Amino acid sequence: MSEPRWLDEAEDRAWRGYRRMFLLLNAQVNRELAQQSGLSEPDYDVLSTLSEARDHRYRLKKLAERMLWSQSRLSHHVTRMQQRGLVTREECTDDARGATILLTQAGRRAIEAAAPLHVESVRRHFFDHLTREQIEILGDATNAVVSALKTPDPA
């Protein structure tokens, strides 16, 4: 077995800082989202994705892939959102096992009310603390990591 590739001081500082920031930032932004709109982070993700989709609809399978969730987990969450009138579910005509999730008028009103509050929270707790250069570097860094994670590991 080869020796571990331990993090150097700069890497350790960056990794621990990222982890701490991720936890604190998510907690703060999601707390404000829930307080101001009554929506959870997954609610917001589903509604915002549907609001941006053509005809405000998404296949359940594709929506689950986009959210990095299992279909079962998303299906259960969508059921709870249906009970609140935010979305509806239609069976697919071309796939008896498939479902399409549609944004309702109530769901559209909810995301339209929540989005400005949510983006202000993100700006206030994240972007307002960074320079334009830091934002551009962060964008490059996150895209590099996401790209690498999407590429299958040859090992």
CATH homologous superfamily classification of the domain at 17-121: Winged helix-like DNA-binding domain superfamily/Winged helix DNA-binding domain
What is the strand content?
Answer: 5-15%
- Please identify the structural class as seen in this structure: mainly alpha
What is the percent of helical residues?
55-70%
Order of SSEs, N→C?
A: HHEHHEEHH
Any idea what the shape is?
A: globular
Main sheet: strand order: 1-3-2
At the first level of CATH, the class of the domain at 17-121 is Mainly Alpha
Largest sheet: 3 strands, antiparallel
CATH-defined topology of the domain at 17-121: Arc Repressor Mutant, subunit A
Count of alpha/pi helices: 6
Q: Low-confidence segments, ≥5 residues, pLDDT <50?
A: none
- Beta strand count: 3
Rounded to the nearest angstrom, the distance between the terminal CA atoms is 15 Å
Mean pLDDT: 94
Radius of gyration: 19 Å
- CATH architecture classification name of the domain at 17-121: Orthogonal Bundle
Keywords: DNA-binding
Domain HTH marR-type: 11-147
Protein name: DNA-binding MarR family transcriptional regulator
Pfam family, one: MarR
Can you walk me through this structure?
There is one protein chain. Strand 2 and strand 3 form a beta hairpin. This protein has helices spanning 9-37, 41-52, 60-67, 71-83, 105-125, 132-150; strands spanning 57-59, 87-91, 99-103. The protein is built from 6 helices and 3 strands; from the N terminus they run ααβααββαα. The model has no long low-confidence stretch (mean pLDDT 94). The protein has a domain at 17-121: Arc Repressor Mutant, subunit A. With 155 residues, it is mainly α. Helix 1 (9-37) crosses helix 5 (105-125), helix 2 (41-52) crosses helix 5 and helix 3 (60-67) packs across helix 4 (71-83). A 3-stranded antiparallel sheet has the order 1-3-2. The two termini are 15 Å apart. Helices cover 66% and strands 8% of the residues. The longest helix is centred in the first third of the chain and has 29 residues, at 9-37.
